[in-house]
Design a protein that fits this description.
The chain has about 60 residues and is mostly helical. It has 2 helices and no strands. The longest helix has 27 residues. The relative contact order is 0.08. The model has no long low-confidence stretch (mean pLDDT about 80).
Length: about 60
C-alpha cells in the first residue's frame, strides 16, 4: 500500500514514535555501550534501567 493512501492519523503517530525511539537509542543506549568513560557508561546504564522499568510498569497497568 503506498504511503500517500494512508491517513495522517496513522502516519503522524508512527513518525513520532520512530523519532522518540531514535532519540532514546542515540541518547541512552549508545552511550551505555560505547562511552570510554566509566561514569558516563554507568549513568547511561542507570537511565536505561529506569526507562525499561517504567515501560514494564506501563505494561502491567494495561497500556
Amino acid at each position: 500500500m503506498p504511503i500517500d493512501c494512508l491517513p495522517a492519523a496513522l502516519i503522524i503517530p508512527g513518525v513520532m514514535g520512530f523519532v522518540v525511539f531514535v532519540f532514546l537509542y542515540a541518547g541512552v543506549v549508545l552511550p551505555t555501550i560505547w562511552s570510554r568513560h566509566p561514569e558516563r557508561r554507568k549513568a547511561a546504564h542507570c537511565t536505561l534501567d529506569m526507562l525499561l522499568k517504567a515501560r514494564r510498569g506501563l505494561r502491567r497497568i494495561g497500556r
